[in-house]
């Protein structure tokens, strides 16, 4: 995520997005900025109910095309994190438009994208993959990489 957006998240929600803990950067594209902003807002509200708990996010990255938010195990953030991770699949990681599916950018690198971004980069949509390759959490959404070379 670009520096300006990252700084805005650090400045707006310092108890959630801690600049020092996330010194390695918010490791996703700009299209999820609004989504992370909304997560920050809701996490902040949740924090007001249990101010003693540690709500600081440990890492933000992309795994199998999906947003991943790592936090302290004991923080009462689990439900919210799950909800926002799932929501990331509905938004284009590049520009935040509604996503039409998961696309292969590299053999091991996937992104949820809108049609326009996928067409712009001539990316192929990813199809079903056997569920054992993913955690039970994401079973219904498992898809497989279809490389143009393999077609
Ligand atoms: Zn897009």
Short descriptors:
151 residues, alpha+beta, 3-stranded antiparallel β-sheet, two-stranded antiparallel sheet, 4 helices, 28% helix, elongated, disordered C terminus, binds zinc ion
Concise structural overview:
With 151 residues, the protein is of the alpha+beta class. It has helices spanning 3-12, 33-49, 78-87, 115-120; strands at residues 57-63, 66-71, 101-106, 109-113, 124-125.
Account of the 3D structure:
With 151 residues, this protein is of the alpha+beta class. It has one domain (3-150). Helix content is 28%, strand content 17%. The protein has helices spanning 3-12, 33-49, 78-87, 115-120; strands spanning 57-63, 66-71, 101-106, 109-113, 124-125. The chain has a three-stranded antiparallel β-sheet. A two-stranded antiparallel sheet has the order 1-2. β3 and β4 (109-113) form a beta hairpin. α1 (3-12) packs parallel to α2 and α2 runs antiparallel to α3 (78-87). The longest helix has 17 residues, at 33-49. The structure holds zinc ion. Zinc ion (ZN) is lined by residues 92, 94-95, 97, 113-114, 116-117.
């Amino acid at each position: 995520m670009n520096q300006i957006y990252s700084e805005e998240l650090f400045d707006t929600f310092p108890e959630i997005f801690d600049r020092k803990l996330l010194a390695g950067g918010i490791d996703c594209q700009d299209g999820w900025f609004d989504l992370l902003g909304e997560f920050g807002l809701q996490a902040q509200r949740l924090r007001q109910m249990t101010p003693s708990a540690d709500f600081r996010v440990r890492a933000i990255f992309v795994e199998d095309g999906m947003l991943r938010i790592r936090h302290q195990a004991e923080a009462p953030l689990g439900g919210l994190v799950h909800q926002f991770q799932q929501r990331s699949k509905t938004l284009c990681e590049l520009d935040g438009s509604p996503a039409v599916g998961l696309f292969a950018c590299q053999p091991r690198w996937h992104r949820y994208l809108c049609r326009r971004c996928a067409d712009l980069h001539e990316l192929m949509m990813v199809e079903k993959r056997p569920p054992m390759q993913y955690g039970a959490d994401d079973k219904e959404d498992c898809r497989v990489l279809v490389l143009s070379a393999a077609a």
